[in-house]
Amino acid sequence: MPVPRFVSVFAIAAGFLSAAPASAQFFLKSAAMPSGRVTGAEPGMTGPALPDATPAELRAALVWNLRAALNVAALQCQFEPTLLTLGNYNAILKDHEVELRESYGTLEKYFTRQNKTKKAGQTELDKFGTRVYSGFSTVSGQLSFCQTAAAIGHEALFARRGTFGDVAQERIRELRASLTPWGEQLRRSLSYRGLGFAPLPPFFGNDKCWRKGTYQVKKCGALIATR
Predict the structure, then answer these.
(1) 196 vs 173, 190, 205, CA distance in Å?
(2) Which of 72, 74, 35, 23 shows the shortest CA–CA distance to 185?
(3) Nearest to 24 by CA among 112, 75, 83
(4) Is the pLDDT of residue 98 over 60?
(5) How large is the angle between the packed helices 55-76 and 97-115, nearest 10 degrees?
(6) Sign, Cα dihedral of 142, 145, 148, 149
(7) Rg, the chain, Cα only
(8) CA of 93: how far to CAs of 40, 67, 101, 196, in Å?
(9) CB neighbours of 78 closer than 8 A, spacing ≥ 6?
(10) Per-residue pLDDT averaged across 157-182, rounded?
(11) How far are the Cα atoms of 47, 144, 176, 204 from residue 68, in angstroms, in the given order?
């Protein structure tokens, strides 16, 4: 039976790609996100800068950033239920309730100190919270953000109580990096050495094997996909 040329190309490509492992994620090969523990003093890690904040206040800000990011993920990532972002977020709120409440109280004291009155401090804290939330809203980087947030949320869910801040310090850099639209990384390997392409079979350059774009089995033999 005649085989269209594009089908032949697809079949051979599938043979090469079958070497890649199956994975329940958005990309065959995800980007390697920048990572590393932070204190909160690094530019951009807490969202808006917090001048003169103590280490405890910076940690509280990182806690609130991670909470906000996981909240955004719970809302934005429900298109893929297997990520469990909504259920895990609700469980995190319950399991880490004390640390989240204490972190918010620490931030209240910081903004009151910086703005002299409790009312002015609350206003600035509200603005801070709004900016933090908006900073995790993404469209172009949604897939990498959702995938990363789901993994971090899973880790946070099983973290011991009182260590949510440790998760935030370890993973917030990675989470912020995921907002960039990284896309599929496998194509870079395909272009170089990742899958080790073999040369195309000789019949691809033999016009006698083709008629009007269709491979002629009788003239050149059956196609056999190999790896």
Answers:
(1) 33, 8, 21
(2) 23
(3) 83
(4) yes
(5) 120
(6) negative
(7) 26
(8) 22, 8, 10, 47
(9) 85, 86
(10) 92
(11) 11, 17, 12, 55
pLDDT of 3 strictly over 50: no
Please give the model's pTM, rounded to 2 decimal places: 0.67
Q: Amino acid identity, residue 125? A: L
What confidence tens digit (pLDDT) does each residue in 78-87 have?
Answer: 888 999 999 9
Tell me the one-letter amino acid at 59. Answer: R
Task: Report pLDDT digits (tens) over 4-40.
Answer: 444 443 444 444 343 333 333 555 455 566 668 999 9
Q: How many residues does the chain have?
A: 227
> Tokens for 164?
């949510």
DSSP string, the chain: --EEHHHHHHHHHHHHHTTSPP-SSS-SS----------S-STTTTSS--TT--HHHHHHHHHHHHHHHHHHHHHH-TTSGGG-HHHHHHHHHHHTHHHHHHHHHHHHHHHHHHHSSHHHHHHHHHHHHHHHHHHT--STTHHHHHHHHHHHHHHHHTSPTT-HHHHHHHHHHHHHHTTS-----HHHHHHTTSS-PPPPPGGGG-GGGEETTEE-HHHH-------
Return the structure tokens found at 17: 């790609």
CA dist list (Å): 150 to 27, 45, 129, 185, 221:
14, 19, 21, 19, 50
**Helical packing angle, 97-115 and 85-95, nearest 10°:** 80
